[in-house]
């Protein structure tokens, strides 16, 4: 059994009170949803106003994808840190 699998079986009272991993993940997901809505609204406003697309509008989807990637990496690092912390607590 891996360290993470052993650490995942900790009882809730063994997890430190300063653990905020779930809050971090929820915040990252909320930001991803808000970013997506704002980008969609920008393109909708351009469409309604019949404004031509500029360079910034063309680059915006790439920036959004990079933002998703950054959030995914951050969530992955948080999960790894939590797993390592729990493994230390259990002595696994």
Q: Which descriptor suits the 3D outline?
A: elongated
Which range best describes the helical content: under 10%, 10-25%, 25-40%, 40-55%, 55-70% or over 70%?
Answer: over 70%
Low-pLDDT segments: none
User: What is the string of SSEs from the N terminus onward?
Assistant: HHH
Using only C-alpha atoms, the radius of gyration works out to 20 Å
Main sheet, how many strands, which sense, barrel? none
Chain oligomer state: single chain
How many distinct domains? Answer: 1
Mean pLDDT: 79
Structural class category: mainly alpha
Question: Hey, roughly how much beta strand do the residues contain?
Answer: under 5%
Q: What's the β-strand tally?
A: 0
The rounded distance between the terminal residues' Cα atoms is 10 Å
Counting H and I runs of at least 4 residues, what is the number of helices? 3
Topology, element by element:
Blueprint (H helix, E strand, L loop, with lengths): L2 H5 L13 H28 L6 H36 L2
Helix pairs in contact: 2-3
What do these coordinates show?
- The structure is a single chain.
- This protein has about 90 residues and is mainly α.
- It has one domain (about 25-90).
- Helix content is about 75%, strand content about 0%.
- It is built from three helices and no strands.
- It has helices spanning about 5, 20-50, 55-90.
- Helix 2 runs antiparallel to helix 3 (about 55-90).
- It is elongated.
- The N and C termini lie close together (about 10 Å).
